[in-house]
Amino acid sequence: MEAKLVVAGMDVHQKMLAVVVVDDDHPQQVVDQRKFGSGAKELQHLRAWLGGHGVNEVVMESTAQYWRPVWLALERDFVPHLAQAQSNAAPRGRKSDCVDARRLARRFLAAELRLSFMPDAEQRSWRGLSRSKHQKRRRRVPLQNQMEALLEENQIKLSSVVTDLLGLSGYRILKALAQGESDPEKLVPLAANNLKASPEELADALRGAPIPERYRKVLTMQLEELDLIDRHIAELSRELGEALRSQPEAVVRLCEMPGVREDAAWQVIAEIGPEAAVFETPEQMAWWIGVCPGREESAGESKSNRSPKGNRTMRRLLNQIAWGAVRTKDSYFKELFHRLIPRLGVHKAGWAIAHRIARWIWRVLHERVHYIERGPLAMDALAMKRRVARLTRQMRKLGYTIEVKPVAPATN
Length: 412
Hints:
This protein has 15 helices and seven strands. It is α/β, with parallel strands linked by helices. The chain has a five-stranded mixed sheet with strand order 3-2-1-4-5. The N and C termini lie far apart (about 70 Å).
């Protein structure tokens, strides 16, 4: 005899929780309901209260970040689920805390909620390191814009002659400017030898007004902040590498794919796990990421095939990996990309490559296979196979019966 399923629905807020208990035998009837605080002692009372009612599974909304302490307090004793708030929307004018919790539990029993993927504690720590590192990288962008604005205000056009203002050449010149050096003849030798601009062009770009002392102090503080961010990025990268030392095989297999380097492999594993075990098929993973074609069907017609919203981190990663793959010499993805451009355009073709890479990532992690680069020859063989199949269908439509067999290799 199967055990009875007892579910607790929770409406989570910053300072209180509304909890309603229902079972699968009579989902319309409330077994019990109660409100708790969100502090540590109240969460202990909540755990004991749920255990007393024989609750098996708990479902809550992803309300800001307030659900996290509740999840951590209950995940060892119960099976928690995190529902997307939009899937439990209430009718206008009929919203209250206990009613929301009851509706959440009933819709969970009816499988009408969209549930979020929550990895285990170890993978969540990987995610935290990986996403923190990305946030640190993003902080470099406004800092670079502020430095560029300061230089432009003093008629210094350094950003017009260097590709990366915060690269090796730009950083050396910025440090010298912050220390009070304004002579272009002394600033030009600080540039790297591989700078595309000529020494004359660089000297002309640096021949602006002397930077006032107050602006130099601001530039010094910005450079110190940049150094701090770079140190934090290096520390987070080192911590993430140490945390994923237990998954060397998955990292190596991912790095065999074009466009994937060690840092990208770490981020992929942090998001979907070393085996992508939660996803049964590559199509399911592509749908969760939001990298596959969507569907807006009404009256038998699809109004839009725009990709659905999904995991933003994986979408960003796949986009970066795809553009790296299509720039890899003699890669299958580069050949496929150029064949798709006439029909889809550049951006949609790049998104199609990202979809193809997502499916390959699932195979590499889930089935533990190795990516073997076939190059343009694989595309030629695939195109020939499709052409033979198309011609065979056309001949059969005309009433011919044909059998296609490969030609045996010639023998001397």
